Amino acid sequence: MSTIGPAAARELSAQLAQRGIAMLDAPVSGSVASAQAGTLTVIAGGPRDAFERARPVLGAFSKSQIWLGPSGAGAAMKLALNGMIAASAQMLAEALAVAERSDIAREDAYDAIAASAVGSPFVAYKRDAFLDEATPPAFSVELMLKDLALALEQAGALGVPLDGVAAAAALMGRARARFGDDADIASVAAELRHAAATRDAASPHTTPEAA
């Protein structure tokens, strides 16, 4: 259930198959609250019959279980989803930064985003983290950067350019450098605020000349 690359999942599955053991790569999607409530989504790859046998166990902590194909499929989908999460975090941070620089209250801007066409479960459950920098971290930048490196490696092998994921990884890396490994991925918003404030301080201030 770890977030690993599909190649590693297939290798482990092959090694276990030689010993008569079926393996599923079955990472999950959802928040800490989803895990606590047992409403995660399981995305699985591996033998279909093994998936059906394991489904009652998976169902004990998830609201849905999706079989995606042979070994490696679950791992591949997890990396794709985490790339979307990182890109979503970046775009959410950018939207908030623009709103705040336009004299819109951060909370009001977040309400508008959450109620808009781009509102999502991610936007809903990350609200506290984006609005209050003191919120305890739930998904660290260190772990996300590990996942993004795997996603970019996977995409390179497939010949798929991931420009959005690469940009999100760069911003996530700057947040990690400023706030540390354990900072939540929502710290990208604080990084953008800091960058804007730094530019303000570096800009020369001019005053109109007296007539």
Task: Give the N-terminus to C-terminus distance in angstroms.
Answer: 71 Å
Q: What's the CATH class label of the largest domain?
A: Mainly Alpha
Strand order of the largest sheet: 1-2-3
Structural class, please?
mainly alpha
Largest sheet: 3 strands, mixed
Helix content: 55-70%
Apparent shape: elongated
| Assigned CATH superfamily of the largest domain | N-(1-d-carboxylethyl)-l-norvaline Dehydrogenase, domain 2
The total count of helices amounts to 10
Beta-sheet strand percentage? 5-15%
Q: What is the string of helix and strand elements?
A: HEHEHEHHHHHHH
In short:
By secondary structure, the chain is mostly helical.
Give an account of the 3D structure.
Helix content is 61%, strand content 8%. The chain is mainly α and 211 residues long. The protein has 2 domains: 6-72, NAD(P)-binding Rossmann-like Domain (Rossmann fold, 3-Layer(aba) Sandwich), CATH 3.40.50; 76-202, N-(1-d-carboxylethyl)-l-norvaline Dehydrogenase, domain 2 (Orthogonal Bundle), CATH 1.10.1040. The chain has a 3-stranded mixed beta sheet with strand order 1-2-3. The protein is elongated, with a radius of gyration of 21 Å. Mean pLDDT is 94; it is low at 206-211.
